[in-house]
User: Fold this.
Amino acid sequence: MESHPLEKNIYLTFDDGPNEPYTSQVLDILSAKGAKATFFVCGKNIEQNPESIKKIVEAGHAIGAHSYSHNPWKVIAGNLFDETEYTRELIKKYTGVDTRIYRSPWGITMPWLNRKLKQNGYSVFHWNIMSFDWWQPSAEYIADHTLKRIFSDAIILLHDGDQTQNGSRNNTIKALPVILTELSAKNYKFKLLEAGQNCPTGSFTNIFIDILIGGVRFLKYWIVS
Ligand SMILES: [Zn+2]
Assistant:
């Protein structure tokens, strides 16, 4: 993530898709605003929405693996390598893209899984601004919380899916145009995550800080509303 000192970059990411109609709605909004994003998809969702994954790639966005099952027990056991490889194969089958970028469910990665992924050429990306959209707060909260914390080279975490459960992402869809308009007004350039990219902002320490700041703010929101 080396950038010109005067250039401001942002990495939009969407997890847990593809999940219709939300993935297509996200794609329409991104297209209307001229923005690009990276989608971390679950293999199980690809099997249910193969057309959506093609649309993501055709629109010029990046794709990464986000496990097959989003299964918490496998996450805790660090036992996700085989299903990540299977998800990579599914992505390749439907899009031709042979991805080597990965994000673990809930950002939880065990050292042995991390090691194996890296040995096999994967780059593991976390995030540093969680929108909290997975908890389905209001669209105003999602946009406001995200924009308040923006800085150059930040990786923003949003969701077009809900693990593998086909949940609603209506509030993310409502918040997204607000977020994109503001980022464009502030001259942020929308960048894609790539394998091999140096990612100092996506470390586990950063996730911890993000969850701490975001969690306290979210708790305040939850109590007041
Ligand atoms: Zn996820």
